[in-house]
Amino acid sequence: MASMTMAKALNTALRDAMEADDRVVCLGEDVGTLGGVFRITDGLAKDFGERRVMDTPLAESGILGISIGLAIRGYRPIPEMQFDGFSYPALDQALSHLAKYRNRTMGHQPMPVVVRIPYGGGIGAVEHHSESPETYYAHTAGLKVVTPSTPADAYALLRQSIEADDPVIFLEPKRRYWAKGEVDLPVTGLPIGTAAVLRDGTDCTVVAYGPMVKVALDAADAAEEEGLGSLEVIDLRSLVPFDEDTVVASAEKTGRVVVVHEAPEFLGFGAEVAARVTERAFLSMEAPVLRCTGLDTPYPPSRLEEVYLPGVDRLLWTVKRSLDY
Amino acid sequence: MDAHDEQVRLLDSEGNVETHPNYKVDLDDDQYLTLYRQMVVARRVDQEGMHLQRQGQLGIWAPLIGQEAAQVGSANALAERDFVFPSYREHAVGYVRGVDLVEMFRLYRGQRLSGWDPAEYNFAPYSIPIATQALHAVGWAIGAKWDGSDQVAMTYFGDGATSEGDLNEALNFAAVNAAPVVFFCQNNQWAISVPLSKQAAGPLWRRGPGFGMPGVQVDGNDVLAVYAVARAAVERAREGGGPTFVEALTYRLGAHTTTDDPTRYRTRDELDLWTAREPIARYKAFLVKAGLWSEEVEAETQAEADRVTAHVRQAVEDMPNPPLSDLYAHVYADPPVTLRRQVERLEEFESELEEADA
Q1: How far, in whole angstroms, is CA A11 from its chain's centroid?
Q2: Whole-angstrom distance, CA of residue B29 vs CA of residue B304
Q3: Residue of B338, B320, B313, B340 whose CA lies nearest to B328
Q4: Nearest to A31 by CA among A13, A62, A57
Q5: Do residue B330 and residue A106 have CB atoms under 8 angstroms apart?
Q6: For residue A106, what is the nearest residue in chain B, using CA coordinates?
Q7: What domain count does chain B have?
Q8: Over the stretch A63-74, which tens digit does the pLDDT of each residue have?
């Protein structure tokens, strides 16, 4: 058992995947010599060569379109979008082709492409560096959308994503890159599409993913210390597929659900969770599903992001609203 | 950079042979006649597409009339092992590649999103969002180069596509990586209703040198010149010379699609001018002068066009509606549980509906 950061776990997963299968290639802006602006591909170009870890021109649609062509050629490309806010030029390739190619060709041409995107806020960045684009992808049939919350799960999910024959949008919570965790390599982990119940509780379920999992766990500790109640914490791990059974089972047990995410509330993933819990666990519910989210505003300047982002206090306040309902 | 200010032409408007310092064709008699047969069949099947749409058998059709030489000439420059990334009007290219033309009709009938297995013909599905397929061609070509293969990718797009970011990104990625890819632009002068003059201020072929690759403009209604120029570009790519931008200057004699009305934006005079320049009559004049054409050749060619057209018409009329499972069976290799349950509910609804109707 080793202690390592999520950045190192992701780097190790890429290295192990490239060693296991020479069709796996990484490409993107600054991923080669520099090792990526977050160093996720650190050292890979040196060990696997400039071809398999390719520095590309600065053009996101091009990076993804090239990856699709490489997949048709038989490669398993892992393009990196340098930041969430810079991934939008590639949306056309993602939504029009990456998501639809398999279906369009009646299953003849799979798209084993993993699009890595550092996402989310909380790092004091300038505009376009703190976005949460998960719903754009989750709303598009044909894509899978995955996001880890710990170093060990980052390793497991990335290896599974690379091995999958479906295209995966792999969202890396950049504020968790440098937090350490225990990693017992090689981590197999739960399969994509299975949520993890990280903490058992009896009074209210908190559904979280990516950067908000740590906030949810801290809130559960605080709720216990303050005598507010016993919180059950679920890490979704993947938004598509969505493990509705695990969430519904927990909702039936606690009778209360709060969903927490950085992305704006309106039409965010929390709405999907609320709709499904309402449909399947209606008679078990003691309160409506509540959401604790980013605001329905553009991401703010960094001096205001603490207000914008859900934190432990706002999450507890939302949980209390549920308990008091 | 190898760029030519003059359009490459090997046949004049009367079908007389012209010489060019850099390009020539050297085909045997059968090959010369094959080009003729393929253009005639393509035009006849294209007309059948228009008829089938008017008769309600197709939802829409995108006619290629006028572009037969550009498509047939370029497609014949490729080897079977090469890979084509088409737009949505490349019926003649697909035909030359050996794709059953019926497959193109599935898409326009609304029976399937695309008909064929790309790997069977090395012919990618039609790509409808403009210019997006050019990037796929470059990615495939970069992979081919990595594999040490001598295969070449060719991507087809129109004059309108040159305004899209994806086309310009594709040109840049290809040049930087010296990828074995040919950018084949069919400049048919109209992007639906927008003329080339509103699309680009400079000649399109000059995009090539701008990105660090050769650019060539060829008379797109001269099938021999198109073949020669495309062949040179393919061979250059095959030998490790990297990408080439080919602009085939042609004209869309038909509408953009069956939903379009070109009389709203272009003149009868212009249409007449380009009708007089259409590629098949010109090539037939060449064949006559070369002593390759005969009544027998014409009869065989027309008989082949009749046969293919009848086959397509029958297949389209007999085409069943797709099964319900086509809705969901191929979206994912491993579908999410939420989709599986949605399908179960749909099947439950459909079967209840059936019971109610019974």
Answers
A1: 16
A2: 18
A3: B340
A4: A57
A5: yes
A6: B330
A7: 2
A8: 999 999 999 999
Asked if A71 reaches chain B (Cβ–Cβ under 8 Å), the answer is yes
Cβ A156 vs Cβ A192: under 8 Å = no
The answer to the question of residue B182 being in a domain is yes
ipTM of the complex: 0.97
| Nearest CA-CA partner of B248 in B203, B218, B216 | B218
Residues 35-64 of A with CB under 8 A from B: 51, 56-57, 59, 61-62, 64
Count chain A–chain B contacts defined by CB atoms under 8 A: 142
Smallest CA–CA distance from A96 into chain B, residue:
B129
From chain A, the residues in CB contact with B127 under 8 A are: 97
| Architecture of the domain defined by A196-323 | 3-Layer(aba) Sandwich (3.40)
The full set of domain ranges for chain A reads 2-183, 196-323
Between A1 and A278, the more confident residue is A278
For residue B1, pLDDT beyond 50: no
CB contact, 8 Å: B170 with chain A?
Answer: yes
Within an 8 Å CB–CB cutoff, is residue A69 touching chain B?
A: yes
Task: Answer yes or no: A261 catalytic.
Answer: no
Identify whether the C-beta of residue A221 lies closer than 8 Å to the C-beta of residue A250: no
Are A257 and A205 in contact by the 8 Å Cβ rule? The answer is yes
Which pLDDT tens digit goes with each residue over B280-329?
Answer: 999 999 999 999 999 999 999 999 999 999 999 999 999 999 999 999 99
Can you give the residue range of the structural domain that contains B345?
A: 326-357
Residues B216 and B280 in one domain: yes
- Residue numbers of A between 104 and 123 with CB closer than 8 Å to B: 104-110
Sign of the Cα torsion A223, A193, A15, A166 reads: negative
- Whether the model pTM is above 0.95: yes
Q: How far is CA B30 from the centre of its chain?
A: 23
Residue B345 belongs to a domain: yes
Mean pLDDT of B23-48: 97
Render pLDDT for B152-172 as a digit per residue (tens, 0 to 9): 999 999 999 999 999 999 999
Q: Is A67 on the interface with B (CB under 8 A)?
A: yes
Same domain, B39 and B117: yes
Q: Could you tell me the fold of the domain covering A2-183?
A: Rossmann fold (3.40.50)
Same domain, B137 and B265: yes
Q: Does B176 touch chain A (CB under 8 A)?
A: yes
